[in-house]
Aminotransferase
Amino acid sequence: MFAKHHSLDPVEIAQVDKRHVLHPWSDLKTMHTEDPLVLAEAKGIHISDAEGNRYIDGIGGMWCVQVGYGREELIVTMAEQARRLCYYTPFGAMANVPAAQLAQALAERAPGDLNTVSFATSGSGAVDSAIRFAHFYFNCLDQPSKRQVIVRMDSYHGSTYLTASMNGKRRDWSQFNYARELVHFLPSVNAFRRPKGQSLEDFANEKVADLEAMILELGPENVACFVAEPIQASGGVIVPPEMYLPRCLEICRKYDVLYISDEVVTAFGRLGHIFASKDVFGITPDIITCAKGLTSGYIPMGATIYSDRLIKAISGENAVDHPYFTNGFTYSGHPVAAAVALKNLEILEGDGILEQVRDTGPYFQAELQKLRDLPIVGDVRGMGLMACVECVVRKIGAEPGEADMAVAARVDAHAQERGLILRPFESLCILSPPLIVTTKDIDRIVSILRDSLIATQNDLI
Ligand code: PLP
């Protein structure tokens, strides 16, 4: 038994994995037959499988390994903190040094008066806490009917009961139950799929009007919050129309609806700034949620950052007697994770990585745009170091055609043969490399992607 657990034989590990591991987003009919890629080690922007094949990690783990793999400073920090204080409960007003320092560091970098931080162990946990807070907030203000949550199609907010209910990727809706009575979906803001002949300006106006119309339809007295990723990541790197986010914020303010900016992907440098809400899109939301790049994926951690305005409103003179926020987790503010997050921030800022992304990001986008000459490419979009190549097999319509659905998986298979991992979803090839990629690495990524798209085109002829 012991020997089996320590086997390094990739074939055997794959068998054990197929037999016992229920991966996220598994098809139960094929989970026991399809071979996983068994990963063994990683360094910089490269990851190797257990058979020794080396790939460029085109997706930064999953939008998260900002500073690259194998950073000695992070590993040493982790070990030192574990040796000093590996864990203690955050309940009962127990503080630990790195968590307090990290909360302060996040407050200093977050926009406006977002100064109070609750910790979670994932992005889902951070978003879940934000929604729970929104409900708690209006209950404390004696407005319990303000409960409804507005999100958008193509969004992704997580995999807890509530956050999964907030996911607007229709193909993900499966045999689960969802909190449909609480969550309402606005139409997608994907300009590529807008009706033929509609100008971008009209499209943007329509999307902003959609939000106001939904608030009015539900009744502002029933709406708690609007939750939006600044750029919808997993849904296909959907960059919102110019001024869309500030105008949505204005509408939220008008109807006393909390604006929750889900920065699980966009924070910590992916767009060249620690937080993108203010620095890239000019908005100061009421709440920011983050995770992933917070620790560069070295250890799980999420955070929710709340505006002082909200905290004051429910803790001041007019507040209910005991605004008792019974939310949090055993591992909230875990000292080892917090120490890693602090060191990660130090690297992102101290090593000039944010500035580097402001140079490499536009280069990455410009090089990817050149793929538009390929017939299979329908759209290329993105910002900073997040991008999506949308493939189109049949003619472009309001929705992707059936034949488009599996095309990105083909591109990914061709890319893996050539040494690049990307993230396929239906017709979308998504890229979010570690932030340390150089222009030379980008050339290599784009060149492999081009060859893989051409190979896919040839398959389909
Ligand atoms: N929010 C956004 C925007 C995400 O992209 C994700 C994950 O991809 C989540 C929330 C959920 O994060 P986690 O998987 O860490 O729970």
In short: Confidence is low (pLDDT under 50) at residues 1-5. Residues 122-124, 127, 156-159, 229, 233-234, 262, 264-265, 291 surround pyridoxal-5'-phosphate (CB under 6 Å). DSSP finds 15 helices and 15 strands in the chain. The longest helix spans residues 439-460.
